[in-house]
Design brief:
- This protein has 318 residues and is an alpha/beta fold.
- The protein has 2 domains: 4-235, TIM Barrel (Alpha-Beta Barrel); 244-317.
- It contains 14 helices and 9 strands.
- It has helices at 16-25, 47-53, 72-85, 99-102, 114-127, 145-153, 178-187, 201-210, 221-225, 229-235, 244-262, 266-280, 287-296, 300-317; strands spanning 4-7, 31-33, 63-64, 66-67, 89-94, 131-137, 161-164, 192-195, 216-219.
- The chain has a 9-stranded parallel beta sheet with strand order 3-2-1-9-8-7-6-5-4.
């Protein structure tokens, strides 16, 4: 059975620099979702969002922009912005689990507000011709919240609903709830995408077997932790390429250079790469030691030296 792999948007990680380098060195992803646009009551698109969606920054990628809002006017403002850039689809984030978002009634904190969801979708579908897709969790407090939204969602020609099989309150802790995802399949006629804990080829196959009707799978943190994962899933292999470390090094050096040019000073680039290494380290033979070495590197020279040492060790173990 053929299937499609999608990159889940991760704020602070999967911007155009990362996406382009990922596509160049690894591949395997059919469509990338851009991290969400959030307006916070001001009808202004931040320059970072603008850069991320500029067509010249995404020439080799199939990218879908995303919005996070609980306000119809904000949604419509972002629709106009992305349509002016040439995008035909806008994804609505009802999945973000972080308290600073959910306490304001956005992300997964909005799922229980079926009337508000209805109001926003009604205005968007009656006032624009944008294609709407959605990214959701099961709910915030419990996994039945999403089921209460389905009668509302059935009223609209939503392209698809990507569901992360956790509730918002979990953040990323605990396991995914596959029984709850199965209930979603049984409760809607909309096309569903599966998202959550695809961290290995074996795990992907397990999800494929568990949900034979699903042919779109979204990979989030697993894609950063092991950038080879999507292409290995596509190839149906668990074998890494012989030059794995060399490929990773070129990818790493590419994003490091680009972020270093963009960010001003040693502290921002250190924090940026430290965030990436929380994930990268998971694919190395001693994750804790690798991450600790990166954390201890307190200047660019020490950082480069730490990376070289980690990669050298992996080559010697190969």
């Amino acid at each position: 059975m053929s299937f499609t792999l999608l990159s889940s948007p991760l704020q602070g990680f999967t911007d155009f620099r990362f996406r382009n380098a990922f596509q160049q060195f690894f591949g395997g992803i059919d469509t990338f979702y851009a991290p969400y646009i959030r307006l916070d009551g001001k009808l202004v698109i931040k320059s970072s969002y603008q850069r991320d969606l500029q067509l010249e920054n995404n020439t080799t990628l199939n990218v879908i922009p995303q919005v996070m809002t609980n306000d119809a006017d904000e949604f419509l403002f972002v629709v106009k912005y992305v349509q002016d850039l040439g995008y035909k689809e806008l994804n609505w984030n009802l999945g973000c689990p972080y308290p600073m978002v959910t306490k304001r009634g956005m992300g997964s904190g909005l799922i229980k507000e079926a009337d508000k969801i209805n109001h926003i979708l009604d205005r968007v579908h009656s006032e624009t011709d944008i294609v709407v897709s959605m990214k959701m969790r099961m709910g915030y407090e419990n996994s039945s919240e999403i089921l209460d939204t389905f009668p509302v969602l059935e009223k609209y020609p939503i392209k698809n609903i990507a569901i992360h099989a956790r509730i918002g309150k979990q953040l990323y802790k605990g396991g995914v709830d596959l029984d709850a995802f199965q209930r979603c399949i049984e409760s809607t006629t909309h096309k569903l995408y599966y998202n959550g804990d695809i961290t290995s080829v074996a795990q992907f196959k397990k999800m494929q077997e568990r949900f034979p009707s699903i042919d779109h799978f979204m990979i989030g943190r697993g894609l950063i932790a092991d950038p080879f994962l999507p292409s290995m899933i596509k190839a149906g292999t668990t074998a890494y390429p012989a030059d794995r470390i060399e490929i990773f090094k070129e990818f790493h050096d590419t994003i490091y250079q680009q972020y270093d040019e963009f960010l001003s000073g040693p502290t921002p680039i250190k924090m940026k790469m430290l965030g990436f290494w929380e994930f990268f380290a998971q694919s190395f033979s001693d994750p804790q030691k690798a991450y600790k070495a990166i954390k201890k590197a307190n200047n660019p020279a020490a950082y480069r030296s730490a990376v070289a040492e980690i990669l050298k060790k992996e080559v010697s173990l190969a």
